[in-house]
């Protein structure tokens, strides 16, 4: 899939270029399948099948001379999840099923949810840690708003892909409402949602990886029971009333997004460093300690110490589910100086010991 950027572009002009591609492609064993156009942004994305990148680019060069800014290989299964299958083609131009132009934007929803319990029995703990009821609620709601569930192995979050940003926000709001209304064995349920958006290929040749990473980072940065959405999602959402509840939804400015990306990059890299503190963090990010404290507290509702503690606990939870390390190893891998202190923090966060949690066969 490739990415083109123009000062001015029209759908008809790209149709003409696509027709020229079709006239040349057979000579080189290439097939130009379809394309997406965003006239407002001057961007074009082409889906191509061929022996290698160079040959695909050569067809463009010979047919009309429009060389791509970036070209990247995409796996068919991942491509279908991210770009979808419900579309119409008009001489190669991709339109939504309702006939409107598909500009290529996709919104990514990341939902982090876990429970806190005071139960001591394995049966009750099992209900907490497997939370299949919550997974089903989230995946059913994603489908109800025309989203596609995506497996994303970097953490325990649930991920959905949407062709329409408004539906993505509607889905997030509905998930939050439904989960906050749910009661059961879990004494307390904590939910955090992140929403990002992107066009399919960036100038660096990235195919949605950075957008998916951002959505997951936003879900980890969000305050408890909050939806944190990127500046682009806010711009693409057509129903402003969905963003009006400041207790439920927080929209980011671009500078805030950049700060979050920088902060999370540093924090994730230093997660196992027991000496990594606020002074180290402010030095790495190149802002003063008071400014860093204010920014993190304003965005997350937590102090920098508690923010890092939450990240370490989330990582510990993922490692416990993998069942490949013992408690002491997980404690040191997540930046704790002793297994006993790790156990104390884990109990305060989740309401049970890590050893009890580890006994459950996670599904």
How would you describe this structure in keywords?
363 residues; alpha+beta; Alpha-Beta Plaits; Arc Repressor Mutant, subunit A; six-stranded mixed sheet; four-stranded antiparallel sheet; 15 helices; 47% helix; 18% strand; elongated
Question: How is this structure best described in words?
Answer:
This protein has 15 helices and 12 strands. Mean pLDDT is 88; it is low at 118-123. A hairpin with a 7-residue loop joins strand 8 (148-150) and strand 9 (158-162). Helix 5 runs antiparallel to helix 6 and helix 13 (327-333) packs across helix 14. It has 3 domains: 2-96, 2-Layer Sandwich (Alpha-Beta Plaits); 105-252, 2-Layer Sandwich (Alpha-Beta Plaits); 255-363, Arc Repressor Mutant, subunit A, CATH 1.10.10. With 363 residues, it is of the alpha+beta class. The strands form 3 sheets. Strands 8-9-7-10-11-12 form a 6-stranded mixed sheet. A 4-stranded antiparallel sheet has the order 2-3-1-4, with helices on one face. Helices cover 47% and strands 18% of the residues.
Specify the oligomeric state.
single chain
What is the overall number of helices? Answer: 15
Quickly count the domains.
3
The succession of helices and strands, N to C, reads: EHEEHEHEEEHHEEHEHEHEHHHHHHH
**Count of extended strands:** 12
Outline:
elongated
CATH topology term of the largest domain = Alpha-Beta Plaits
Rounded to an integer in angstroms, the radius of gyration calculated over CA atoms is 23 Å
Portion in beta strands = 15-25%
Mean pLDDT: 88
End-to-end distance: 36 Å
Instruction: Give the strand line-up of the largest sheet.
Output: 8-9-7-10-11-12
**Main sheet: strands, sense, barrel:** 6 strands, mixed
Corresponding CATH architecture of the largest domain: 2-Layer Sandwich
Q: Write out the CATH superfamily name of the largest domain.
A: Nucleotide cyclase, GGDEF domain
Instruction: Indicate the structural class.
Output: alpha+beta
């Amino acid at each position: 899939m490739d990415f083109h950027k123009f000062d001015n572009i029209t759908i008809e002009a790209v149709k003409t270029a696509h027709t020229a591609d079709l006239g040349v492609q057979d000579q080189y064993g290439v097939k130009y399948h379809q394309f997406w156009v965003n006239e407002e942004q001057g961007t074009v994305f082409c889906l191509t099948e061929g022996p290698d990148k160079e040959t695909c680019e050569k067809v463009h060069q010979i047919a009309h001379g429009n060389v791509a800014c970036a070209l990247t290989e995409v796996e068919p299964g991942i491509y279908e999840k991210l770009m979808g299958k419900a579309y119409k083609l008009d001489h190669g131009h991709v339109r939504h099923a309702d006939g409107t132009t598909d500009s290529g934007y996709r919104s990514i929803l990341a939902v982090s949810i876990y429970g806190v319990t005071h139960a001591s029995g394995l049966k009750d703990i099992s209900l907490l840690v497997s939370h299949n009821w919550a997974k089903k609620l989230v995946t059913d709601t994603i489908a109800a708003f025309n989203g596609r569930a995506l497996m994303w192995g970097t953490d325990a979050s649930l991920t959905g892909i949407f062709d329409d940003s408004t539906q993505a926000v509607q889905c997030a709001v509905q998930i939050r409402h439904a989960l906050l209304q749910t009661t059961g064995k879990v004494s307390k349920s904590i939910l955090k949602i992140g929403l990002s958006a992107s066009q399919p290929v960036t100038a660096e040749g990235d195919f949605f990886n950075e957008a998916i990473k951002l959505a997951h980072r936003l879900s980890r940065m969000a305050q408890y029971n909050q939806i944190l959405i990127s500046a682009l999602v806010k711009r693409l959402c057509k129903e402003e009333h969905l963003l009006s509840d400041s207790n439920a939804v927080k929209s980011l400015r671009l500078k805030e997004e950049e700060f979050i990306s920088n902060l999370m990059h540093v924090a994730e890299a230093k997660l196992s460093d027991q000496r990594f503190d606020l002074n180290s963090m402010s030095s790495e990010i190149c802002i003063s300690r008071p400014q860093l404290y204010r920014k993190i507290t304003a965005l997350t509702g937590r102090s920098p110490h508690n923010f890092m503690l939450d990240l370490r606990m989330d990582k510990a939870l993922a490692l416990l589910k993998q069942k490949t390390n013992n408690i002491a190893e997980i404690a040191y891998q997540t930046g704790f100086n002793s297994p006993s202190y790790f156990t104390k923090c884990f109990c305060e966060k989740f309401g049970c010991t890590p050893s009890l949690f580890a006994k459950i066969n996670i599904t």
